[in-house]
Amino acid sequence: MNSANSINGRILGAENYQKLRNSRILLIGAGGIGCELLKNLVLMGFGEIDIVDLDTIDLSNLNRQFLFRQRDIKQSKSTTAVKAIEHVSNSKLTAHTGNIMDVETFPLSWFDRFSIIFNALDNLEARRYVNQMAQFLHKPLLESGTAGFDGYIQPIIPGSTECFDCTTKETPKTFPVCTIRSTPSQPIHCIVWAKNFLFAQLFASSASTVGESDLGTENPEEIKRIQQETNELHELQEYVKSGDESKITDIIRKVFVQDIEKLLAIEELWKTREKPVPLYDVEINDTINTDMSVIWSLQEQVNAFVLASKRLMRRMPGEGSIEFDKDDADTLEFVSTAANIRAHIFKLPQKSLFDIKQIAGNIIPAIATTNAIISGLSALASLRVLNLIRNQPEAKPTELNMAFTSKASNISSNRYISSPQLASPNPKCPVCSIARGVIHISSKTFETAKLSDLVDKIRDKYGFEDEVSVLDKSTQRLLADYDFKDLLDKSLSEVNLKHGVILSISDERCDVEELRCTTEFYLDDCEEKIGLRLPDIKVPLVKVAEPKKEDEDLDDAVETTTSGDIILDAVDVDENVKKRPLEDASFPPSKRIAEADEGITVILD
Ligand SMILES: Nc1ncnc2c1ncn2[C@@H]1O[C@H](COP(=O)(O)OP(=O)(O)OP(=O)(O)O)[C@@H](O)[C@H]1O
Ligand SMILES: [Zn+2]
Predict the structure, then answer these.
(1) Which of the pair, 137 or 7, is modelled with greater confidence?
(2) I want to staple 89 with a disulfide (CB 3.0 to 4.6 A). Which of 42, 359, 500, 519 is the partner?
(3) What ipTM was reported for this prediction?
(4) Which domain CATH number covers 199?
């Protein structure tokens, strides 16, 4: 199918096409974006494609992860994706099932065999990790993500363009299943429970199934309880379908009394938490409240819950199933009252119907079309990054483009897609502004060399003075600093250093104008006869920053906070500005903080 005479061959030209055929590329994630992207990369004709995913296929993936079928549920995503496409593939495909952050399976040297890395991930931790690996290896990385109709691609060319961590990311609120189902500690947990679990199980057609690995708990009693609870709710769905409204009190008893009693029986859960109180002695009467902006009394919540349940039950025979819609008063009232009753049981603050409408309506579904657009853009961008487009002169990295869809870019125009040029690295970025190198170290040397030997060698080679701090970045353990020298005499293995660990060395001198740049070293394997080899990198001196003036504090706080996840509208792009200056690469702090406060975004997918 793919030859120099194929459409792709003719578009790229024979020479570039051959380069594409000779390229081995890495795709991380075989989910919504990953399935689309794998198909694109195969159709483009890349020579070798490795795809990594740690997960198995869930029923809820099938609507958009088109390489998977019902029969594939519980099978490895990467292996199934490869099987589904290999019959039309002219690429050598290799599936890996595992966590990309597992240093034993995927050490840094493993990443080095690829010409380009494509991220098709769904979480900040893995995105950050891969970004860091790309920085160590100076490997181009094509980062991408979607949330609802918003999406982005960001080519990252280490040393030349900004990296994933150059701009602050906010955290979307995702919660482990066990928090939602067993130990809520915030009102939002009760809202997610009422909408995604209770309502979905009783009325919706697509009640989610939860695999053990998704539960966020290893307590066998709790896992058993959650699974039993799900099965019992399926039975309650029969009551709902029967149309027998007298069963509503059974639903209340099951959900707000018996399930809570079962939770209370798992003593482990309540050692450090306040115990919930089941909803005993509940009465139903005529008191109702219609003011959406106030918090109703418990009695008003219970009465409204019964009324909303009745209305929904009456609709079921005609509609078959009912999906939650914040603008559908019955579904909203059911979810809102159920959430508030649960909040009462767990002694958490309750919310007005109006507030719950905002919060529950903000849950973002995955949209297959957005994934397809973003994957298409990602695949196309790779040709530009690898300079494979015929008659196009080699682009400087910062002449490459990123792309956003919809409001992700914060653009004022009505255009759906925008493609600003890439910004230069942020000099204050905690990841790409520091020096990096790979220390090759053999297994035996971990036993024979002392921590002090390694630190002395690093100090001598890169010009650090005595006052350095040595941190194991992987575990955030301090190994040595000016007044902590207890571990220096121990062997590297005794202080738990091993392959895959990242060591961070910082110059801790006070009262100097320039400090040696903080440097991170990845400890990689090498032959025994080499023993220990330090990389030939330059570790520059950097000017110590002036203390900030008071009115700059807020700005600074935003720049240095790098926890959080990919928030698509974290990049402020003015389409009139051709080259996006770095200062514009983030929201004004005030806006950013306001959004962080109210940003309850439950990512379903
Ligand atoms: N550390 C990791 N190593 C390997 N694969 C990962 C890692 N983190 C996430 N992934 C994979 O990235 C993919 C992201 O895809 P996507 O955003 O569509 O999520 P999903 O899990 O498939 O969807 P849903 O959340 O609806 O089940 C998932 O298949 C997930 O297993
Ligand atoms: Zn950076």
Answers:
(1) 137
(2) 42
(3) 0.97
(4) 1.10.10.520
